[in-house]
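Think of the structure tokens as a kind of shorthand, similar to the way a musician reads notation: each symbol stands for something richer, in this case the local conformation of the backbone. In the example below we present two proteins back to back. Begin with the first one, reading the sequence and then the tokens, and try to describe in your own words what changes along the chain.
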Amino acid sequence: MKSYLISQQSLQVKLPQWLQAKKLNVALLLVVSLFTAPVIADELSLAEAEGIALQTDPMLNLINANAEALDEAAIADGQLPDPKLKFSLFNFPTDTFSRTQEPITQLRFGLQQTIPRGDTLALKSKRTSSQARSVRAKNDDEELKLRRNVRKYWFEAWYWVKAEQIVSKDIDLFKQLVDITESQYAAGKQNQQDVLRAELEMGLLDDRLTHIQQQQQAARAELSKWIGSDSLRSLPVDLPTLATLPTRADVEASLPRHPALRIFRSKIDMNRHSVSIAREAYKPAWTIGVDYGVRDGNNPDGSSRSDLLAATVVMDLPIFTDKRQDRRLAAAQRRASAAQLELDDKYRAMQSMLARDHVTWTKLSQRLDRYRNTLVGQAEANSEASLSAYQNDATDFTTLMRAKITELNTHLKALRIHTDYAKAHARLLYLAGEQS
């Protein structure tokens, strides 16, 4: 921003001693404020802020841990249940409890294995793998959201820092105007209304600066959620250049592959596998087993009693399905339909976001060009002309103040549009999946 300092000599007005003392006190206060401001000198670039957030965000670490856990669970879900080892005592006589008294007395050892219904194991493994893919898609989406949010609050903090610098420069100018107006009033060259107007504008500008500092602290507090105390560091002079945006058509074409939608596609796969598992419930489960019975004692002819071997096969009979299998299949089908509807709703919402943000980005670009190429220059020229006219007694103090305030507001408006344009750009990069 261009700063216009009014030459006191050109107005041929010598400031009284009390005014010079007042200016000295103000300078001392500014020096003290520099040492007490809670801003760290080392500059925080946007790229560095994003890197800090990505490294320290606990949610990303949590999601990664969950995805790794599901990968391990998917392997386990595809395995047969553990076999069962059996040990039993068969047909012991209760009068003597002797193992040799009766030929049917046995010590039996067995091994049993259950085989789940149909392809249930493979389907459960696929379902868990789909869940892991959903979690990984969520991780990718969270990274994109994190970048978008860090950029949003970094840009906002940057705006208020720049706004503070602009208003602080104008405060110096307005202080000179107040001092000059008061000295001219003392010399009988200005009326009291000009003095009151100058003091009023000075007070309003001081209040505006306080508001800007409040907003800056609030923006830094929001940014600290992502990067901690690094949010207090000073910011660069200029806004960084973000990645070039693809065309809207390209973004729209790639939208179905966006991580936020891949989350729901993986959920749909999960529910489809659940439907298949529910269909497998109509098939029988099998249990096979082998038993070995050890017998002691002798046969009537004096020969040793032989040991016995037994094999068993157990099959489920899923014949009463109306209250169990039918209900579970219907429930799984309803959940699959709900997952598809959820995907459709999210896709429509993201299409709406793309349309809204692209229009915002386009119109802000047009406004930014208008301010840069026309309005800022016109406001500065008008301010210069008003100052020159005032110095030559060709205009009144009110016109000069109005021109200076208009120039200040124009600079702040251009700065706000530039910041909002950068925010819209960041939102579109999120929708594009940072593919650039």
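Once you have a description of the first chain, move to the second and do the same.
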Amino acid sequence: MERWKKIEKVPAPAFTSVFGPLTGMRVLCNGTINAAPFAATMLSDFGAEVIQIERPNIGDPGRFQAPKIVHGDKAISAVFLQNGRNRLSLTLNTNLKYPESKEIFLSLIKNADVWIENMVWIEKMGITDEMLLEVNHKLIICHVSGFGRPQFGGDPEICDKPSYDPIGQAESGFMFLNGFAEPQPVLQTAGFINDYITAMFAAFGIVSAYVNAQNTGKGQVIDVTQIEAGARILDDNFAAWINAGWLKKRYGNKVPVFQPANTYKTKDGKYGLVGAYGRDVYERCLKSMNIDIEEFPYLEAGASADAVNSPLGQELERRVEAFVTSHDSQFLYENFNKYKVPFATARNAQEIYKDPHWHGRNNFIKYVDQTLGKEIEAFGIAPKMSDTPGQVWRGAPALGQDTETILSRLLGYSDKEIAAFKGKGIID
């Protein structure tokens, strides 16, 4: 068959609006919750045309994750409603043992600039990097997994291990540093943060490789792992151990190397965080609490781990705690802000949504979710850009919503050919 050899690439965007710095980039995504699809979402928010390939009749499991938003007899997960936006949904069985699937998939690859996957065992589907780069020599291939692909090194058995967010948190060293000192346990961070960190590394790698491909005409393969993304953001965790034998430990909410820097329960039951790094902020912080700077010199009471742990440092910690716990959060916010001392309270979604500052920055936007068929509101675009801002051109698609349109307009299949695919487990 090899129909893909005869088709010409259709420039992007063919389906989406023209906006953002990544307009002209087309991304094909074989990814499910959460890292790979969110990398695609980040690219789509800034103009890339994203086609998400989903399994026929099943789709991305992220569509069904609790909690769900219900409208009439339809429901969609809050996470898919939020992050599935700006995508096209094409249902396709990507097992290339089916000749029709192979033709469609390779035709899509020929039309893509980027392919993202987190299926891990792609060879079992008949897919190899070499095959795809032969079809499209400018293609950027981004593999997202827990432990990496053996082509980039490492133990093949470990590379073959399955993973998901908490596994990545644990194996990267991230989880070990979160929580309080023993005997309390380590803390799994909420919000599937390892997945989202991994996605950001993937998006950065893709944009970097895309720029190179535009300059050189040559694509490449990117290997993004949960464990390496989690490890890379751990400040000096590895440098401290490797070069000084300093094994960092959990310390809860209190920063161990300078102060004031801790979280306290305020008089009105909030959790207030005070942070004062550096001599100038330290002295302003003490002044804001009417604590004598001469009694607690910076170098002796707040500048280092030794100072924090000294008798004088411990007494300062007691004074700060007494001040914060004896005042309500609004007073503390106004007081510390007056002296330009960093202060915040741990806030939930309801409290943040009520804050005019967040709305003033257009952080909550409305668009029509395609599954529910109704207008919804979700978090907006980050980061902000002055000349090429991102936008949402449509809400998350219904499963397979764009299959026939993509097959027809992008790949040139006729209505008759598309009809012939149906009932075979290829697209439905």
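Compare your description with these statements about the second chain. Residues 170 and 176 are 7 Å apart (CA to CA).
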